[in-house]
Design a protein that fits this description.
438 residues; mainly beta; Immunoglobulin-like; 2 domains; seven-stranded antiparallel sheet; 25 strands
């Protein structure tokens, strides 16, 4: 074997050794994680615990519903033997786990207008009477027997494995608990079946709650109201004209945008009406001066309405005393109204945003005005459970009977002062000239 062949053999041996080393390092990485390996551990004096997290997903501005969420804990097997309900004391029957909501729950976890409210259960296995040491397997799912209107219940299913060990002397304790996903909802984003989750109460690794999560989406039902009844208005945008010479027959142009909450994924249309105060309640106005493409009523005895597609700007005209009212907006829907600039009128808007009043006023006439906050921190106003209103007032410039506007008086006074000063100077010069002549 010559030197070239010897070098080639050495090179191939080095290459093969390098490949073996690479595979020896890579194999543990590619080894499948055992979903039944415990993720939380206990001691003989303090058993491992597991809790369920109910994650309620609602539009920001929507109150949580009153409901008790129930979860089934179904026995599967013990030490590899399938559970048989006819065998007494084969494994503990846990029963339903409950997580009550009283309607006051809230959270500071808000993402793109959606609030996430996590509430944990008590320890799932707190009252379990383990007959002996062993490996006990359960399936946990949500029961939707309450069937709250507007509630989308979680389809998630988890398998929980409980490792029960003997204590020294006598007795047993929960030495470890494993949990993994069998059927996922959007609780553990990006996870798939078999992914392990941590059921530790209070969470771990950056979480404040157990990762045995069941996520429900709640959309408060919308009951379409009567536009002639004030109490049925979900949003009110109204117009007032002030000033002694303000034109109360003039129409003012508005751009109005309404959008649905992020929790509503289906397409829908919102209804708006122009109304005026009548003898007792409101009267619906169907003039093309307000809007020229009204939609025919879809219920007998109903009124023509303005059809709003979420997110689409609509141009609406209102005159003094008129109101644009919405009757079927979801909680968590949002809006922005912008009044176009109008010559000789200074615009002001008073906003009621739930319990929070605010106002904005232009300093000059012929300037547009919107419901966005003055500092720009709020663009779209969110519809909640309470009153939502935007009252636009346009004040016409003040004029005098002589046709002189008070707004022009400072300039007129300057002119008068110049004339008076010039006249005084002329008189002074004439008198001085006469005195010199004498």
């Amino acid at each position: 074997m010559n030197k070239t062949q010897i070098r080639f053999v050495k090179l191939m041996i080095s290459f093969m050794l390098a490949m073996v080393l690479c595979f020896s390092v890579a194999l543990p990485v590619f080894a499948a994680e055992d979903p039944k390996e415990p993720i939380s551990y206990g001691t003989p004096t303090e058993s491992a615990e597991a809790t369920i997290t109910k994650m309620l997903r609602i539009a920001d501005g929507t109150a949580a519903p009153k409901e008790t969420f129930k979860f089934t804990v179904t026995p599967v097997e013990v030490n590899g033997i399938t559970y048989d309900e006819n065998i007494e004391d084969m494994m503990p029957v846990i029963g339903n786990i409950e997580i009550p909501f009283d309607g006051s729950e809230t959270s500071d976890i808000v993402v793109e207008g959606v609030m996430y409210i996590p509430v944990e259960s008590d320890n799932i296995f707190a009252g379990a009477d383990w007959p002996h040491a062993g490996v006990y397997v359960y399936e946990i799912a949500e029961a939707d027997d309450d069937d709250t209107d507007g509630m989308d219940y979680s389809p998630a299913v988890y398998e929980v494995v409980v490792y029960v060990a003997n204590k020294e002397g006598s007795g047993v304790y929960v030495a470890g608990i494993a949990a993994h996903i069998k059927t996922n909802d959007d609780s553990n984003a990006g996870s798939t079946e078999g992914t392990k989750v941590d059921p530790t109460p209070g969470g771990s690794d950056g979480y404040d709650y157990s990762q045995l999560i069941f996520t429900n989406t709640y959309i408060k039902p919308v009951y379409e109201g009567d536009p002639t009844v004030k109490g049925d208005h979900r949003l009110n945008i109204n117009k007032t004209v002030t000033g002694e010479y303000g034109n109360r027959t003039k129409y003012f142009e508005f751009e109005v945008i309404v959008d649905k909450p992020a929790t509503v994924t289906s397409s829908m249309t919102y209804k708006a009406y122009v109304v005026e105060e009548g003898d007792s309640d409101f009267e619906v106005v169907t003039s093309t001066d307000n809007y020229d493409d009204l939609t025919e009523p879809d219920i007998p005895g109903g009124y023509e309405y303005i059809s709003f597609e979420p997110g689409t700007p609509m141009m609406i005209n209102l005159k003094h005393g008129q109101q644009l009212v919405f009757t079927n907006l979801h909680n968590g829907a949002s809006y922005m109204a912008t009044e176009s600039a109008v010559a000789d009128y200074i615009a002001k808007v008073d906003i009621i945003d739930g319990d929070i009043p605010s106002s904005k006023k232009n300093t000059n006439a012929n300037t547009e005005l919107s419901t966005a906050s003055a500092d720009g921190s709020i663009t779209e106003r969110v519809i909640g459970d309470k009153e939502d209103k935007a009252s636009f007032t346009n004040e016409y410039k003040t004029v005098t009977p002589m046709g002189v506007s008070v707004d022009d008086l400072p300039y007129i006074m300057l002119i008068v002062m110049v004339i008076v000063g010039f006249a005084a100077y002329i008189v002074f010069k004439i008198r001085r000239s006469a005195k010199d002549t004498e």
